[in-house]
Amino acid sequence: MSDTPSGIVIEATGLVRDFGEFRAVDGIDLAVEAGEIFGFLGPNGAGKSTCVRMLTTLIRPTAGSARVAGHDVETEAGLVRRAIGVALQDAAIDPLMTGRELLRLQATLHGIGRRTGDERSALLLERVGLTEAGDKRVGAYSGGMRRRLDLALALLHEPRILFLDEPTTGLDPMSRIALWEEVRRLNTELGTTIFLTTQYLEEADQLAERIAIIDDGRIVRSGTTEALKASVGSPTLVLAVVAEDRDRVRGVVARFGDPRPADEGHLALGLAGGASEVAEVVRALDEAGITLVSMALDAPSLDDVFAEATGRRLEGSE
């Protein structure tokens, strides 16, 4: 029997990973409950994939500990692997094999009999929309098809826990939405616990019940998406300004709220009085003889949470 706390299926304490003198993961603490979709959000290079590789037994921690499905990732790696499915961002798939052949190989590796493996393969190909492409070589698949095949391969042995590392990177909008729908279905219909790493704010907001934001190897915020957005407080007023007016605009709007990180060519502030103060800001700028390029009032978002925690916007958040 597992001694993992009731309900918690992924747990990390003080998890560290060094590559030479570079520390990629710096003391991560995590607790993921059974049956939830947990989002691990952060920019490229933040340590997301390194953390997943430790949790899935692909690399050993430098320090700290982790348990997945009740088993230690170092001393019980085999038991961890039996309980999880993994779809990595850079998974290598033989382009000369067909999707069905790869699923059959995966079944063999997991000790699943031929008949059961073929039945599950057919079901999974249908589930991810690849039935017609099942006998085509993977080298002819689009990026979206390959990601859906990755998902089918990860699910073949019916894991309790599924790790998805940047599952929609490089996908077109329709393929991304289709994969989101499948992730939701796996969670709601089968009760699969899903650990999702992503750099997309919308993806984390759409899918995850709770998230942790990682930056430079450290978790800088964690909680439910709604609680994190509520913690930011006031909405963000974003002003597009010409370079020569930047300092004047900053001086005029300073009294309306605290400055927030903004993309180049913009100024942003937390509008303390909310939407009711937008007219006052416009009036003050007009009296100062300043004309804006544009103005937008944004409700608190995960990007605001990231900006508040790190002092910068998440790349590509727009």
Give a structural overview.
This protein is of the alpha/beta class and 318 residues long. The chain has 2 domains: 8-228, P-loop containing nucleotide triphosphate hydrolases (Rossmann fold, 3-Layer(aba) Sandwich); 234-299, YebC, transcriptional regulation domain (Alpha-Beta Plaits, 2-Layer Sandwich), CATH 3.30.70. Helix content is 36%, strand content 27%. The protein contains 11 helices and 14 strands. It has helices at residues 48-55, 77-83, 99-109, 114-127, 143-155, 173-190, 201-207, 225-232, 246-253, 278-287, 302-310; strands spanning 8-19, 22-33, 37-41, 63-68, 71-72, 84-87, 161-165, 193-198, 210-215, 218-224, 236-240, 257-260, 266-271, 294-298. The strands form 3 sheets. Strands 6-7-8-3-9-10 form a 6-stranded mixed β-sheet, sandwiched between helices. The chain has a 4-stranded antiparallel β-sheet with strand order 2-1-4-5, with helices on one face. A hairpin with a 5-residue loop joins strand 12 and strand 13. Helix 3 (99-109) packs across helix 4 (114-127), helix 4 (114-127) crosses helix 5 and helix 8 crosses helix 11 (302-310). The chain is elongated and about 80 Å long. 39% of the residues are buried. Mean pLDDT is 89; it is low at 1-6.
